[in-house]
Amino acid sequence: MLTRVSQSGKKSRTKKSAAATDDPPTRSVSIPMEKGFHFYYGLGEPSGIYALSMNDFLEQLKTVDVKSVQFHSDRNDFSKWLREILDDKPLADDFEQLHSAGLSAESVRTRLVVLTEKRCLEISDPQNVAV
After folding, report:
1. What are the angstrom distances between the C-alpha of 16 and each of 5, 25, 26, 31, 91?
2. Handedness of CA 11, 16, 17, 19 (dihedral sign)
3. From CA 108, how far away is CA 123, in angstroms rounded?
């Protein structure tokens, strides 16, 4: 809910429209550890690597074992985390489209890195978005 104050000083409460008023996600805002992205090699096989921001995610994605990339890509974990935790629907949608492309794990990693780098640039400088 938003509280608005009219010119006469009268307060009113209105519902916030997510599309119209939410700030875009930021690439460096850190989230709590329990909401971070924790990379696994498989079920019950944690890698010990995690990301607490989009910048962290990008850096870890570049170096984490490709087995982890494959595991999370197959389960659509990346897009779920981006949408539900970082609130970045555009990047989550891009990741979901890539999920069904049938690429090798290393090709998936390369595309995920490129998409994430592009999104980080869009977030940091919305004026500099290539059309």
Report:
1. 15, 17, 20, 23, 23
2. positive
3. 22
Q: Considering the entire predicted model, what is its pTM?
A: 0.73
* pLDDT tens digits, 92-117: 999 988 876 778 899 999 999 999 99
- What are the tokens at 114? 């490129």
Tell me the CA distances in angstroms from 96 to 18, 45, 52, 91, 92, one per residue in order.
22, 23, 21, 9, 6
Mean pLDDT of 48-54: 95
Using DSSP's 3-state secondary structure scheme, residue 11 falls into: strand
Q: What is the DSSP string of 80-126?
A: HHHHHTS--HHHHHHHHHHHTT---HHHHHHHHHHHHHHHHHHHH-G
CA–CA gap between residue 35 and residue 86 (Å, rounded): 9
**Does residue 77 contact residue 99 with C-beta atoms inside 8 Å?**
no
Dihedral sign (CA 33, 92, 55, 50): positive
